[in-house]
Design a protein that fits this description.
Elements lengths: L10 H20 L3 H7 L4 H9 L6 H10 L19 H16 L2 H21 L1
Length: 128
């Protein structure tokens, strides 16, 4: 008797969280509130909240509207999906914040930030 293959445990949840975290990061980078973005794409604030929290997987039409409103390529929302082991929502959001900060830094300060992070990494390895 053939069985239907089941999706990998948590894969849809991971995708919803991943897209939601990236939508939130792009919105914050643009300096918009959820209310402002919802108005710009003609959706309810509750819809934006649900998308960002990973409570719902939005359709491609809404995701395209979000991308246009945030001046962000639609591919941004999918970058890294499946490339890395599962990251917690907090870890993903923190890495996206770090990326946003790095993009705003002048090159000299970016080099300093990398050096600081490498020092932290080496310190952690020595403690372990």
């Amino acid at each position: 008797m053939p069985t239907n293959p089941q999706p990998q445990c948590g894969s849809i949840m991971d995708l919803k969280n991943h897209i939601g975290a990236r939508v939130k990061a792009a919105r914050q980078r643009k300096g918009l509130t959820q209310e402002q973005l919802a108005e710009a794409i003609d959706r309810a604030v509750e819809t934006m909240s649900n998308i960002e929290r990973g409570a719902m997987l939005t359709g491609l039409d809404t995701l395209q509207r979000i991308a246009v409103a945030l001046d962000t390529p639609m591919t941004f929302f999918f970058e890294g999906v499946g490339d890395m082991p599962h990251l917690s929502r907090a870890r993903l959001e923190t890495e996206l914040r770090l990326q946003a900060i790095a993009q705003r830094l002048p090159m000299r300060e970016l080099h300093l930030a990398v050096a600081l992070l490498e020092t932290l990494e080496n310190f952690g390895e020595k403690k372990a």
